[in-house]
């Protein structure tokens, strides 16, 4: 593609190598001015690396960058900012205990005298942009006190405050409700009409269809071409992204549930800051069914799981597994009642990264006689147990029993956790965000495993912030809002919009 | 060259490099201060290894720091920083002295009793620090340091108390001889013993001129047992899991608070053992007034870090440090150079073991240089086709370099 | 009674001064995200550098500055390890604490004929001159000039941290270094400066022991002060003003030790000597809250791992 001032951003033949791994191999990107341009690719395909190069956080080993037809060299975020590039990261780059204003001015402060902050003027400056772009944000609120959607707007304001003309949004919808996503799409189109150019990084097809003008696809560091969104379909984009035809639906038979296995009654949980996060929640999961909980992050999901696992105190209510109360005991006791959990953050809660794969595979069960007599551990037995799991669940690289867990890819780490938890043959399986950060192939594996466990007769509680996942996998869909279940539906009897409304508190009003 | 870089990537390499840097820094400091480094190091080595009794004394000196080292390494592997080894050691000496003074039983009961009291003292103090961490989230480093000072003054209090003070001295009463653990204490001074030893002069020197005792053997066994406990038992598995990832351990049903307290209890017990063995094994067989920290705890930290926090690795590293500390005194006698140079050396060594990346970084750097040399070689070859003489020369140089590399690899 | 009270206040302020400097060092370093257990060692270096310089120049002011610079120099080591090499900050701090007394005693013995202490050296002045109020009840209130400097330094650190753009950046780096990095703030540079400054303050703290309170360096001049200062940082919830208050409390226990030990009080001096250390533990049990710690405290920042 020729270099031309019609394009806000052109990146040509960008190559980036990390050690022996080629993250980007001669990738091209041409973004027309005043458009929304999507970059589509699986987790780890190199999308974020490409954008981090544009933002100056990484340096390309090869290739050129042109802005408005001029060749530029971007040495760091400061250069990018001065070229009018702004970036909103997937994990927000906000200082939690700072106010909105402090976060926005950080690095480009308003000073009265040498270095002395002029917070009054800073606040006025921030208010002016807030009004100009019609964002509803309180400049004095602390970040930790505002919603995720609000925080995202603060991130966008940070870029606009610095005069950004080109905005990069990394996975912007990952944490938003359908309604918030709609609002975001509106904001994006409004920004474009005011002269801005927007690049969104995403692996969500729907989002591209609803917001983008053009879409460039990257697969395993290779540039797969750019398509006009109005001329394509979700299925075409998906096959370009993955490199094969993918089945976007989850195949399963009808559930044949039996008796209630997990029963939660009037559960109330207070978090460490003293805020009541779960408020009299009621929920039942029967053997042989998957109950999915849809909801936005921060509506009590974390506290619900913590209370089930006895990681935190339940202030009121009961949690019963097979009729026996387990609340306010200990994680050990919960496990002994045959309830296991696939945690949301595998590296924090699920794995001991410096341990070997074999050691990780017996994290809960190392005390059993099976893995060593009395006080001793028998590593041969642990290893042979692990070998079976590796083979059965196709954990790669094969023969990784003695490798450190930290050396495995995210997808294989997740497989290792799931293999371990399933090897427990649990009566109740809690899956909290089980596909976070996984690519399409691994997601398919996780979903199949959950359904196979259901068919074996386990009671499964799936908690996910991805509404599609909850809708596709669950037999029963419950919606959590402000620590309560505000609606419960059989699969297929409810639409995405209805659920979205409930997730945003619309049902309670 | 490849052998060098692959060696540099091994953990032992960082210890060796750190020791080398420690000696180098000490040499520079000595030279800068006007002392001859070579002669100083010669004095150091002869002071540590010159005579059989010196070597025996090195083992005696190594005993407590081997144990405190094992205690620190044990705790570190489970994610805890036991900087309180010093205080736990002191409490071990206090309790074993008190019991050794007050109780007089046959050695077969007396020795275990006195030693176990010391172990108990260290264990209780360690568990207290662990408890404060588990229940109140107070960082063990702060509480450890505070208990180190409290124990120092407690020791001085006991030494100065009417019950235990030995008149006209700066120490408490010695413990009853039935608790002594020197090797053959009576036989070696008996006529038969003297006669037998006359034939083996080195053994005579070692036995009669030092307090050679069972301590080092006990300590080495403890080091091995601690290693097995960590690596091969269910308890060790739990402790290590908590050390590496408290959250995941908790999630997997491991009682994190209990693990922290257990770990500190064991670590403290080992320090208490160090104290008890010093009381039973070497003169004056009691506690004395302390003006400053004795350094057993802090030297234990050094021993542990140089051993890469392997409990068994503490055995050689404790001998190294004991050699440095004991030989260091000779440096002061012979050269007049302050023996504190040894502390500078040890501090430097620990500082460089704290830089975990340094030897791999070195290895990467060497690899990179080789790679860029190879690139330069190719470029030079291309250039030499044009017949540019100086470049040809450069290419030849590089070829020689490269062949040297090949030789070294072979 | 009044005499004793005034004496108590005077001694409290006097003994809290080295702690205040040490604690300010801790606040600055930890606010930028670097745990600094090496404060103790940096204070020892400041103590010897101050005393030795004062001895040779007979100018305690120059000595005070040299003490700060020496502390900063040692802190540079900690910065290299913990910022550039992403080393374990606790181990690096411990290494500093091993190294510093070695250097201090080596230098001391080299300069003063093998003695582990310096001769009596020139002291910094008192605010009302050396002999004002001598013999009156108010003698205790004739404070060391360092006590005033410590208060001024506390106010200055507070102002810089909360009222200037540099302070905003330092706090951001300690809370969320990746966020600061994306806004073009140099995380490494910020941390280097903060760690070095923490050493400078610790050096001042050491000197305010050896050239203001006592007038010589001894092996035990600094004995755990750096760690008590760190406890004060925690107790003061990582703010300069809070740390100042905590230091006054610890200074007060030390003053009580002295007052009670000097009188006919029936408690052995060894037990009284435990008081400041025991007090530190008790205070931490009663008031500790890890929640106030900067989020990225003690976590090395590695570019790209966000």
Protein architecture, described:
The complex is a heterotrimer of chains A (509), B (410) and C (306). In chain A, 32% of the residues lie in helices and 25% in strands. With 509 residues, chain A is an alpha/beta fold. Chain A has 3 domains: 7-242, Rossmann fold (3-Layer(aba) Sandwich); 249-338 and 426-509, Rossmann fold; 349-424, no CATH class. Chain A has a 6-stranded mixed beta sheet with strand order 6-7-8-3-9-10, sandwiched between helices. In chain A, strands 16-17-18-13-19-20 form a 6-stranded mixed beta sheet. In chain A, strands 2-1-4-5 form a 4-stranded antiparallel beta sheet, with helices on one face. In chain A, strand 9 and strand 10 form a beta hairpin. Chain A is globular and about 70 Å long. The mean pLDDT of chain A is 90. With 410 residues, chain B is mostly helical. Chain B folds into 2 domains: 36-336, no CATH class; 360-409. Chain B has helices spanning 2-8, 11-32, 37-49, 52-77, 85-102, 107-136, 140-160, 191-198, 201-209, 215-232, 234-244, 246-251, 256-281, 296-306, 314-335, 340-353, 358-384, 389-409. Residues 380-410 of chain B have low confidence and may be disordered. Chain C is mainly α and 306 residues long. Chain C is built from 12 helices and no strands. Chain C has a single domain (2-292), classed as Orthogonal Bundle (ABC transporter involved in vitamin B12 uptake, BtuC). Chains B and C meet through helix 7, helix 14 and helix 16 of B and helix 4, helix 9, helix 11 and helix 12 of C.
């Amino acid at each position: 593609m020729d270099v031309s001032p019609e394009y806000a951003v052109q990146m040509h033949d960008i190559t980036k190598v990390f050690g022996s791994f080629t993250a980007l191999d001669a990738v091209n990107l041409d973004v027309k001015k005043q458009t929304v341009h999507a970059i589509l690719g699986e987790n780890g395909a190199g999308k974020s690396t490409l954008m981090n190069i544009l933002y100056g956080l990484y340096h390309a080993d090869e290739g050129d960058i042109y802005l408005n037809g001029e060749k530029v060299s971007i040495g760091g975020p400061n250069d990018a900012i001065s070229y009018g590039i702004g970036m909103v990261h997937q994990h927000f780059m906000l200082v939690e205990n700072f106010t909105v204003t402090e976060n926005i001015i950080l690095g480009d402060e308003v000073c009265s005298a040498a270095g002395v902050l002029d917070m009054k003027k800073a606040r006025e400056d921030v208010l002016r942009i807030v009004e100009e772009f019609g964002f509803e944000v309180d400049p004095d609120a602390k970040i930790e006190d505002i919603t995720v959607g609000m925080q995202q707007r603060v991130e966008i304001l940070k870029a606009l405050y610095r005069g950004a003309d080109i905005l990069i949004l990394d996975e912007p919808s990952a944490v938003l409700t359908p309604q918030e996503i709609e609002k975001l799409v509106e904001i994006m189109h409004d920004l474009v009409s005011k002269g801005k150019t927007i690049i969104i990084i995403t692996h969500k097809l729907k989002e591209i269809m609803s917001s983008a003008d053009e879409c460039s696809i990257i697969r395993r560091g290779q540039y797969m071409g750019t398509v006009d969104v109005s001329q394509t379909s979700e299925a075409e984009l998906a096959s370009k992204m993955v490199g094969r035809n993918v089945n976007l639906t989850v195949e399963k038979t009808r559930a044949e549930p039996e008796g209630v296995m997990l029963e939660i009654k009037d559960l109330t949980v207070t978090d460490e800051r003293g805020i009541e996060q779960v408020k009299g929640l009621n929920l039942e999961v029967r053997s042989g069914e998957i109950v999915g909980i849809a909801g936005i992050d921060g509506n009590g999901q974390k506290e619900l799981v913590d209370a089930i696992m006895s990681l935190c105190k339940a202030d009121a209510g009961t949690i019963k597994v097979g009729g026996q109360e387990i609340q306010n005991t200990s994680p050990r006791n919960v496990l002994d009642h045959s309830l296991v959990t696939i945690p949301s953050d595998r590296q924090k809660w699920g794995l001991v990264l410096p341990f070997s794969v074999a050691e990780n595979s017996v994290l809960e069960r190392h005390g059993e006689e099976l893995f060593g007599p009395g006080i001793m551990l028998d590593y041969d037995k642990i290893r042979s147990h692990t070998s079976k799991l590796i083979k059965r669940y196709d954990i790669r690289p094969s023969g990784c029993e003695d490798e450190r867990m930290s050396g495995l890819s995210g997808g294989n780490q997740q497989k290792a956790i799931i293999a371990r938890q399933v090897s427990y043959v649990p009566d109740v399986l809690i899956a909290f965000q089980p596909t976070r950060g996984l690519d399409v192939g691994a997601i398919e594996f996780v979903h199949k495993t959950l359904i196979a466990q259901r068919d074996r007769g386990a009671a499964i509680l799936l908690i996910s912030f991805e509404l599609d996942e909850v809708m596709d996998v669950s037999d029963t869909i419950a919606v959590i809002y402000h620590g309560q279940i505000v609606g419960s539906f059989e699969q297929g009897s409810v639409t995405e919009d209805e659920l979205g409304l409930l997730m945003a508190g619309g049902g309670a009003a | 060259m490849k052998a060098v870089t692959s060696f540099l990537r091994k953990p032992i390499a960082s210890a060796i490099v750190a020791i080398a840097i420690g000696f180098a820094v000490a040499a520079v400091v000595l030279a800068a201060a006007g002392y001859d480094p070579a002669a100083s190091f010669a004095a150091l080595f002869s002071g540590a290894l010159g005579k059989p009794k010196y070597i025996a004394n090195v083992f005696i000196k190594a005993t407590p720091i081997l144990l405190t080292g094992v205690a620190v390494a044990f705790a570190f592997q489970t994610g805890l920083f036991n900087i309180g080894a010093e205080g736990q050691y002191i409490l071990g000496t206090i309790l074993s002295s008190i019991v050794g003074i007050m109780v007089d039983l046959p050695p077969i009961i007396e020795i275990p009793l006195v030693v176990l009291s010391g172990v108990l003292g260290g264990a209780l103090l360690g568990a207290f620090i662990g408890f404060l961490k588990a229940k109140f989230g107070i960082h063990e480093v702060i509480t450890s340091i505070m208990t180190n000072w409290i124990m120092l003054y407690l020791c001085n209090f006991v030494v100065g108390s009417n019950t235990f003070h030995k008149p006209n001295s700066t120490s408490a009463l010695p413990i009853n001889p039935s608790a002594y653990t020197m090797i053959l204490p009576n036989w070696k001074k008996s006529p038969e013993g003297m006669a037998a030893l006359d034939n083996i002069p080195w053994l005579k020197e070692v036995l009669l001129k030092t307090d050679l005792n069972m301590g080092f053997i006990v300590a080495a066994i403890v080091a091995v047992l601690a290693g097995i406990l960590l690596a091969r038992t269910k308890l060790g598995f739990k402790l290590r899991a908590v050390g590496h990832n408290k959250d995941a351990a908790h999630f997997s049903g491991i009682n994190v608070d209990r693990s922290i307290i257990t770990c500190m209890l064991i670590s403290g017990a080992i320090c208490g053992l160090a104290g008890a063995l010093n009381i039973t094994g070497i003169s004056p067989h009691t506690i004395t007034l302390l003006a400053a920290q004795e350094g057993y705890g802090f030297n234990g930290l050094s021993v542990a870090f140089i051993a890469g926090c392997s409990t068994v690795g503490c055995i050689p590293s404790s001998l190294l440090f004991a050699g440095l500390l004991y030989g260091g005194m000779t440096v002061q006698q012979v050269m007049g150079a302050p023996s504190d140079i040894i502390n500078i050396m040890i501090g430097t060594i620990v500082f460089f073991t704290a830089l975990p990346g340094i030897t791999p970084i070195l290895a990467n750097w060497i690899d990179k240089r080789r790679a860029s040399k190879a690139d330069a070689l190719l470029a030079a070859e291309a250039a030499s086709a044009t017949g540019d003489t100086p470049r040809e020369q450069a290419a030849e140089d590089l070829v020689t370099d490269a062949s040297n590399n090949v030789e070294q690899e072979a | 009674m009044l005499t004793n009270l005034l004496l108590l206040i005077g001694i409290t302020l006097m003994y809290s001064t080295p702690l205040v400097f040490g604690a300010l060092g801790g606040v600055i370093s930890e606010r930028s995200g670097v745990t600094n257990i090496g404060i103790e060692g940096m204070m020892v270096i400041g103590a010897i550098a101050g005393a030795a310089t004062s001895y040779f120049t007979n100018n305690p002011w120059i000595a005070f500055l040299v003490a700060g610079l020496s502390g900063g120099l040692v802190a540079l080591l900690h910065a290299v390890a913990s910022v550039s090499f992403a080393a374990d900050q606790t181990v690096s701090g411990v290494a500093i604490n091993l190294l510093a007394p070695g250097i201090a005693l080596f230098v001391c013995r080299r300069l003063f004929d093998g003695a582990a202490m310096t001769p009596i050296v020139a002291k910094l002045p008192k605010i009302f001159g050396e002999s004002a109020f001598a013999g009156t009840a108010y003698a205790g209130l004739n404070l060391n000039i360092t006590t005033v400097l410590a208060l001024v330094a506390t106010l200055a650190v507070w102002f810089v941290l909360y009222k200037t753009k540099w302070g905003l950046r330092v706090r951001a780096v300690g809370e969320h270094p990746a966020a600061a990095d994306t806004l073009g703030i140099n995380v490494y540079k910020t941390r280097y400066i903060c760690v070095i400054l923490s050493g400078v303050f610790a050096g001042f703290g050491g000197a305010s022991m050896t050239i203001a309170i006592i007038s010589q360096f001894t092996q035990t001049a600094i004995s755990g002060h750096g760690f008590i200062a760190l406890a004060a940082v925690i107790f003061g919830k990582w703010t300069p003003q809070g740390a100042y208050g905590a230091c006054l409390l610890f200074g007060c226990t030390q003053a009580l030790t002295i007052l009670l030990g000097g009188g006919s009080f029936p408690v052995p001096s060894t037990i009284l000597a435990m008081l400041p250390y025991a007090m530190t533990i008790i205070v931490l049990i009663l008031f500790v809250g890890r929640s106030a710690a900067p989020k990225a405290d003690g976590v090395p920042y590695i570019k790209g791992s966000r």
